[in-house]
Amino acid sequence: MTFIEEKWRQGFADATELHGRHVNPQMMQVLRIIGFDKKYVKAQGASLWDERGDEYLDFLAGYSVFNVGHNNEMLAATLRETLGSSWPNLVQMDAPPLSAKLAKELSDRDPTGRLQYAYFGSSGSEAVECALKFARAATGRPRLLSFEGGFHGLSMGALSLCGDESWQEGFGPFLPGCSTLPYGDLVALEKQLSRKDVAAIILEPIQGEGGVRELSQHQWNEIQKMCRKYGTLLILDEIQTGMGRTGEFFAFEHWNLEPDLVCLSKALTNGMVPCSVTLGTKKVFEAVFNRLDRCVVHSSTFSENNLAMAAALAVLDQLETRQLVARSAALGELVRMKLKAALKDFDLVKDVRGRGLMFAVEFGDPKSMKLKMAWSLVQKANKGLFGQMITMPLLTEQRILTQVAGHNLNVLKLSPPLVVNEAQLDRFVTSLTEVVKECHRFPGGLWDFGLGLAKRAILPASLSP
Q1: What are the CA-CA distances from residue 81 to residues 69, 70, 310, 311, 315 (Å)?
Q2: Does the pLDDT at position 77 exceed 60?
Q3: Could you tell me the CA-to-CA distances from 147 to 6, 57, 157, 180, 187 in Å, in that order?
Q4: In angstroms, rounded to a whole number, what is the distance separating the alpha carbons of residues 152 and 208?
Q5: Is there a smaller number of Cβ atoms within 10 Å at the N or the C end of the chain?
Q6: Where are the domains of the chain?
Q7: CATH architecture of structural domain 74-321
Q8: Residue 185 and residue 215: Cα distance in Å, rounded?
Q9: b (16+ CB within 10 A) / e for 164-195
Q10: How far apart are CA 165 and CA 448, in angstroms?
Q11: Could you give the count of Cα atoms lying within 13 Å of 1 in the half-sphere of its Cβ?
């Protein structure tokens, strides 16, 4: 047995207890209560296996991390080769070859030709912090804007622009000059931008935490036009939507946008090595690194490390050689069509939406008096409870891992690996249909279970990051 195999086995035997004692006891309690306390021993492609050998479909994908699949062999081989090399790493006073190549390949994938520069970090939050700093430096302005429902990370600057107060509780005061506007409110936006003191607005092309919702082409056109008119930079947070997730490499391609800064992470290295990148225009980067003595004015010890750069280059290769971006577009359209057909007659289902393999099913107030009464009881107890009543049986009975979009949202968000196949998507459609059908039986065991949890006030409205 190797060193790390022994550590894995030791940790596996007592993982729940050790996490409860040394990491996050509340999380362990929640997982146990809702039946998510599975012990997984293997992951491959779009599947997980537990200690009993049961296979689960992973439609969470680490919150849109595993675009090229769990334990992708080409990616693993690339990392083994990198580790086995004698290449210098983190010299700091050099021009690392792998980061140079990665920056060029990412820039080449920008259809606007504007995103010529890259800053590499270690997390999505770090990419956002970088973008906020760069926007202030490039404009000389103090203020930053976002839309309600947006999620940009949990570091202090990112949290200051979070559109959900449940993430902010207990961590204030926040970064001065940050404001969150009603989602898609163009009048409110122009009122703020016209003051000409806003450095940037940061937006997700498709809100993940906010319920997998998107702005119209008209709204995007107006936002971009206003940003240019008033000298405000447009930052697009593509941490969940980028890397082919929505059927385009960058989600902003759907609306022909021309952002000044773009943040990527999560799927950039497929979860194998922490990594992020902030892409920006020449004008923005030259405003930050504007003198010789400011050449390292924004830097990080682990930026551009060989393992992260190698992993990202391997992911780009997999996306291209396996045509996973086009696959995401085609399979996403197919699964949404099948979901709409399967769920169209269910009173509780309000919408099926999304792009590529980032899609969602929204549940809402039914018309049936029986169901209306049940819905009302659940909503009164916990606004996000019904969504969790869907995710629990999907995992425990159908063996499919999912989660709701965000706090107090009855929106099931799906983001399977882009390597998922049609048979697996069909299994999901069939399984979800069975669970939804059970939810239309009232009184019924599922409603009794959900209401019981609500009365004890122990079921979280969301486990999303």
Answers
A1: 20, 19, 9, 11, 15
A2: yes
A3: 47, 33, 15, 5, 13
A4: 10
A5: N
A6: 1-26, 34-68+324-455, 74-321
A7: 3-Layer(aba) Sandwich (3.40)
A8: 10
A9: beebeeeeeeebeebebbebbebeebeebbee
A10: 30
A11: 8
Q: Which of 155, 171, 208 is nearest to 407 (CA)?
A: 208
Phi/psi at 43 (5° precision) = -140, 135
Segment 207-226 shows an average pLDDT of 98
Question: What is the structure's pLDDT at 281?
Answer: 99
Mean pLDDT for the stretch of residues 232-239? 99
CATH of 34-68+324-455, one of 3.90.150.10, 3.40.1400.10, 3.10.20.320, 3.90.1150.10: 3.90.1150.10
pLDDT of residue 317: 99
- For the segment 324-366, what is each residue's pLDDT rounded down to a tens digit? 999 999 999 999 999 999 999 999 999 999 999 999 999 999 9
**Cα(69)–Cα(29) distance, integer angstroms:** 29
Let me know if 348 is exposed, middle or buried by CB neighbors in 10 A (0-12, 13-18, 19+): buried
Both structure tokens of 34: 């809702």
Query: Could you give the dihedral angle defined by the CA atoms of residues 262, 267, 270 and 274, in that order, rounded to the nearest 10 degrees?
Result: 40
Q: Are 161 and 144 in contact (CB under 8 A)?
A: yes
Residue 155 above 80 pLDDT? yes
**pLDDT greater than 70 at residue 42:** yes
Average pLDDT over residues 242-260: 99
Residue entry with tokens 């689960």: 56
Are 235 and 131 in contact by the 8 Å Cβ rule? The answer is yes
Write the CB contacts of 209 (distance below 8 Å, at least 6 apart in sequence).
149, 150, 151, 164, 405, 406, 407, 464, 465
